[in-house]
Structure formats: C-alpha cells, structure tokens
Specification:
Elements lengths: L1 H16 L5 E4 L5 E4 L8 E2 L22 H5 L7 E6 L4 E3 L6 E8 L7 E6 L2 E2 L9 E4 L5 E10 L5 E4 L3 E5 L6
Parallel strand pairs: 5-12
Antiparallel strand pairs: 1-2, 1-3, 4-6, 6-9, 7-8, 7-10, 10-11, 10-12
C-alpha cells in the first residue's frame, strides 16, 4: 500500500514539474508583468520560488524513531536546564560559606527525575534531589563553579547546565 502511495506522489511531482512555465516581461512603461502566454519573443520564463502549501491534516512524515529507553522516559523531553542563582561572578560573604543554588528546568522537572548539583566538578548530593534548589554549605573562600545535572530515575544523566562561576569571600576576623 505504501509503495502505491509513494508512486502516486512521485508521479504527481513529475507532472507538476512539467506544467506550463510562467513568463515575465516588462512593457513600454516599465511595468513588470507575469503570465502563462508571452506577448512577444522578448518574454523570458520567470524564475519563481517553489509554491508553499499547507495541509490541515496530520503530517505525512513518519514519527522519529527514538532509542527504546529515551521513548519510555518522559524526562527525555527536557530541553533546557539553566542555573538561576547564583548569577555569574556573584560574591557571597556568608561566614558559614552557605550558597543558595536554584535552577530552571524547561519543561518542568518530570516525575522520577532529579537534580545533582556539582561544586567545582564534584557532586554535592549523593542522591538526585527532587527539588530544583539547594544550599551548598561549607563553601571555602575563593572562586568556584556550580553545575546542575538532570538525571532520570535510573540515575542516567539527561542534560547538564552551563557552569556558573561565583566567589565566596566570608568575613575575616582580625
């Protein structure tokens, strides 16, 4: 059945290509005209772009084939994860070295998925958190980077944020 449909579509395309050309010419007043019948030998076939069409019926393209585990995982639809806080080069002056981190996940974090927060490349939480925010405690003085990774229920990483650099400058006692 598909081969018959494919042949019919191919035949229709071939006949459409063999349609009469459209001609373009300029009259004595300099006005440009288009038509199926040339008024003189000076008329040249017009180079027109392909006609755009739209069908309100479903797409004739087959659905993309996803890997078995990706199709079964709703978390595979995550498009973006972005760190909202801290912002790039933000300075924290907390005496205990506490830094609040929050991320945006688009679309929302699906059921069963979690977030692993990394500080300077090392995971800060042993198990994925079901929340998109956490507090990093005991962050030492200096420059640090934070990254958030979204993982599915089996622990497989789905997507990772871009790193954000921040600075911890707790007060010093003299």
């Amino acid at each position: 059945m598909r081969s018959i449909l494919g042949f019919a579509l191919l035949s229709a395309c071939c006949f459409a290509q063999a349609a009469d050309p459209v001609y373009r010419w300029v009259d004595k007043e300099g006005v440009i005209h288009y038509g199926a019948q040339p008024p003189s030998k000076d008329a040249k076939p017009a180079a027109l772009p392909e006609i755009q069409t739209y069908s309100s019926r479903g797409s004739s393209r087959p659905a993309p084939v996803l890997p078995q585990d990706a199709a079964a995982t709703p978390a595979a639809t995550i498009k973006q994860v972005r760190i909202l806080s801290p912002v790039q080069d933000e300075v924290f002056r907390d005496a205990q070295g506490s830094v609040g981190v929050s991320v945006a996940v688009l679309p929302a974090l699906p059921e069963g998925a979690g977030v692993i927060f990394y500080l300077d490349g090392l995971p800060k939480n042993a198990k994925p958190l079901p929340s998109t925010s956490t507090t990093l405690n005991g962050v030492e003085r200096g420059e640090h980077s934070v990254v958030a990774a979204i993982v599915d229920a089996s622990g497989r990483e789905l997507i990772r944020s871009q790193p954000v650099t921040f600075h911890s400058k707790p007060p010093t006692v003299r």
